[in-house]
Structures are given as C-alpha cells and as structure tokens.
Design goal:
Structural class: alpha+beta
Shape: elongated
Oligomer: single chain
Strand content: 35-45%
Number of helices: 7
Mean pLDDT: 76
Helix content: 10-25%
Radius of gyration: 24 Å
Strand order of the largest sheet: 22-21-26-2-24-25
Distance between the termini: 49 Å
C-alpha cells in the first residue's frame, strides 16, 4: 500500500528566512549538530529507514598490515525497518565502528564511499552470487571448491570478499573454508550497476502560486502499482493531490507525476506529504548512518516499509522558494538548492556571498563540510516555518582517511551477539575496543572542541528588500 499524509501546514506573508548552522567553523566549514535541532530527522531522498540490531551471523577475519595482525568479526548485520520489515547487510567500511542502535537511511551510491569506488559494481556482483542471496550452502560450497559451509563461514567469506573491494585492504577469513569462498568470490566478481531506489520523490520540495498545480513531483519506485492517499489536513482548503491531467490520483507507478492542486483563493501556506509502500528493498542499496556509524550495503530484505516525503509552498506574490539539500561527495559538501517560482527575485547571503535566484529560476549552493563531520542547517521563517537539513558527511572509508592503527584500532565492526558464540575472552577478541562505547567520549570531546573553536554562524536568506523597508 502506498499512502500520502500531510504532516504540517503554515500560513505566512513574506518568505524571509534564516539558515542557522550550529557549531560551524568558518575556515573549514565543519558543522556539528546543535541541541535545538537534535530531534529533527536527517534529510532523506526516500526509501527504507532502519535501526541497527547488530552483527548476527559471523565468524572471524584477520587484517594484516606489515607485520601487524588483527582479528575481527566478519559477517551479516541485521536491521529493523521503521514501519515493519527486516534487512541483512554487510559492512563497507572495515575500520569504522558501528554505533549501538544507530539509525540508517537508504542512500544512493554517490552519497557514500561507493560513489568514488571503481569496484562498487563488483561488490554488487558478490552480493548477488553469495550468501544470503544464495541460500543453498551445499551448492555454494561446491562452486567455491570446499567440502561444506555453515551460515557463519559463508557470511564471513562473503564479508571478506566485499572488504577487499570496498576498503582495498589485506584481509583474510580465519576459517580455511570461508577463505576459499572469499577467494572464489573475489576472482569471479564482475561489474554490476547500482540498483534502483526502492522509493523516492523528485524533487522533495516544490513551490508555486494559488490557482496552479504546484509541482511536478516524480515518483521513482520499484513497486508495480501503488495507492495514493491525499493530505489529510488539506481537504478543508481544497488542496488536492492530482496528476498531470488535473484529476485526483488514487494509484501511481514508477515515473508518475504528482501535483498539489491549490485553489485560487487559498491563503499563502504550505503542506507536506509522505508516500509509503511495502516492498523488498533491492540488494546492493547502500545504507548510510544518520550518525557516525559504518556504512552498510544490503544483502537481503524482507517485505519492508519504504517511504519518501515532499513539501509544497505557495504564495500570491513575492519570491516563493522551495528548498532541498543533498550530500555532494564529489565536492565534499552539502548542496542547498533554492528554486523560486515567485514573481520577484529570491536573494540570500551564504558564507559571506550574496546569491540571487531569479523569478522562475533555480540555484544550487554547495556548503563545504569536512569528512566525517555532522552538519545541521535550519532554515527559519515567519509564522513558525522551519526547514531542517542534518546528517553526517561520510564519503570515504576510514582506511582512505588514514584513521585507526593496528595496535590501537580506531574502529571495528560491532560485535553484537550471534547465536551462542560470543566473541571476547578466550578467543582473543577484546570487545572493549569495539562497538560504540569507546567512540562516545571521543565524539563528545570533539563536539565540545568545535563549539569552543567555532561558536555558531548564521546565514540569512531574505528578500531583496530589507525588513526595515517593509516596516
């Protein structure tokens, strides 16, 4: 079932706004989250949102750097999808820790380390040709040339093969059978394409004038035919969700276009909708942590809830901006895009520069953010209007950044329980160095440092005319 639900409405006259970045260091443009926006949801292009349950099916692997050797767990993580469903994932950042109960967002490859990885397609091939997509372990063992495989050794061998392409490190499975599987998968890997998103709306924000169809918003999904429910609180004002022909939509398919049909006598305002579907998320989709937690890649999915959101803003006159944000790994920053469907230019000042978006035009400004840094931008306006964008810029693997050492590792895969085989103690793996507990004081210390050094910066997005002139 695919549904839409309006979650907030506002009324406003002028569309002046302030872009607040808490803890911004001007020289390096590092942005850290502030407490005022701590409960806001990270921006998301759509798809599944899930919470990490931990590493569930695994064995051991060995990382070798020079004459140093480190044992770590290797295998399948599990996640619980918001709204229902389960995911199985492998890690694609060997040196970074997972945070306990971390929130993960389905993401496109270009917003993770996969975007710049020439071997990303080979990882997709490994996922399609190994466990758990291939659940006949006898057949998989025969292909790999080993006598037998358990779920644990199959998961470990698959993870090791993935790490060799995701992190380009010297890593081997400790179990000989798992190591032979890893070698088999590494040799056989061929290029593959990025899978299509489970569900997105493009763009996620639109604007226009009353009396018009505000849009379009294009639906991208792998679901066949899905159902649309109009915004619940729009009915009183006569706002409808319609197709290109102006008729109310009850079902849509991939490529369908949605519009908000706003009556001519509607007061200036805005509304938002969320579309949902239940489907299996495509294998190979990346999952980026909403906090600093290992990036994951999908190995298997139950029927799960996926969603995407979009907003519409309308006004009778003046500038009418629609604001969206997207990570830009290629330029090491976050793209803030302002589209103006009004009849006056939309002028805003950002990082000391003034930018003008003409009537009927669109402009994108890239805000530099340092790798691994959290960012939090809130665009504020009159009558309680807010637009918040937050997340973590995680575009490289930790190994590529030179973090962590073999004798005192910075990060490792999280060792959540796996059946009756706990790690630690007698088997030589010290769990005190893994997971989220060690990272917490480090992150807190870094955050405090940023506040002391950087303070805060405020960027003003405003009309060309000043507020004093209006008053």
């Amino acid at each position: 079932m695919f549904s839409a639900l309006s979650v907030r409405r506002r009324s406003s006259g002028r569309l002046a706004a302030a872009l607040v970045a808490t803890g911004l260091v001007a020289a390096g443009a590092m942005v850290t989250a502030g407490p005022a926006a701590a409960d806001e949801t990270p921006q998301h292009q759509g798809g599944a949102v899930a919470t990490l349950d931990g590493l569930k099916t695994y064995d051991k692997a060995v990382i070798r750097t020079g004459d140093q050797v480190q044992q770590i767990p290797a295998g399948l993580f599990e996640m619980t999808v918001d709204g229902g469903g389960k995911l199985k994932t492998y890690c694609i950042d060997i040196h970074r820790a997972t945070q306990e109960q971390a929130k993960y967002l389905e993401s496109s490859w270009d917003q993770t380390s996969l975007g710049s990885n020439r071997d990303a397609g080979k990882i997709r091939w490994i996922l399609d040709h190994s466990y758990p997509q291939v659940d006949d372990l006898s057949a998989l063992a025969e292909k790999a040339g080993v006598a037998s495989l358990t779920e644990q050794t199959a998961a470990a061998g698959t993870q090791v093969a993935i790490w060799r392409y995701s992190d380009h490190v010297k890593v081997d499975a400790l179990d000989p059978r798992a190591e032979k599987l890893a070698d088999f998968l590494e040799r056989g890997a061929r290029g593959g394409s990025e899978p299509r998103a489970s569900l997105t709306l493009e763009p996620s924000a639109v604007s226009g004038k009353p009396g018009e169809k505000v849009g379009p918003i294009k639906v991208r999904t792998g679901v066949g035919r899905v159902t649309v429910t109009p915004p619940a609180d729009a009915a009183g004002d006569g706002v409808r969700v319609v197709g290109k022909n102006g008729k109310p939509l009850t079902t849509v398919v991939n490529g369908s276009e949605l519009y908000f049909d706003v009556p001519a006598d509607a007061a200036d305002g805005s509304t938002s909708l969320t579309v949902q579907a239940t489907t299996s998320v495509p294998v190979g989709r990346a999952f980026a942590g909403a906090t600093q937690s290992q990036t994951q890649i999908l190995a298997g999915s139950s029927v799960s809830t996926v969603s995407a959101a979009a907003t519409a803003t309308w006004a009778k006159k003046g500038p009418i901006p629609a604001l969206t944000a997207r990570k830009n790994c290629a330029r090491s920053g976050v793209d803030i895009t302002a589209a103006n469907k009004g009849d006056e230019p939309y002028v805003f000042e950002l990082m000391g520069s003034k930018h003008t978006v003409g009537a009927g035009q669109s402009r994108t400004v890239t805000i530099p953010v340092q790798e691994d840094q959290a960012y939090d931008f809130t665009i504020e306006g009159p009558d309680g209007f807010e637009k918040n964008f937050k997340g973590v810029l995680d575009c490289k693997t930790s190994g590529a950044l030179g973090t962590g050492t073999m004798d005192q590792p910075q990060n490792r895969p999280s060792p959540a329980t796996a059946g009756d085989a706990p790690l630690g103690g007698e088997d030589g793996l010290d769990l005190a160095d893994t997971g989220s507990s060690n990272a917490t004081p480090m992150i807190a210390g870094v955050a405090i440092g940023f506040v002391v050094i950087g303070g805060a910066a405020v960027f003003f997005l405003r009309k060309k005319q000043t507020d004093s002139a209006e008053e």
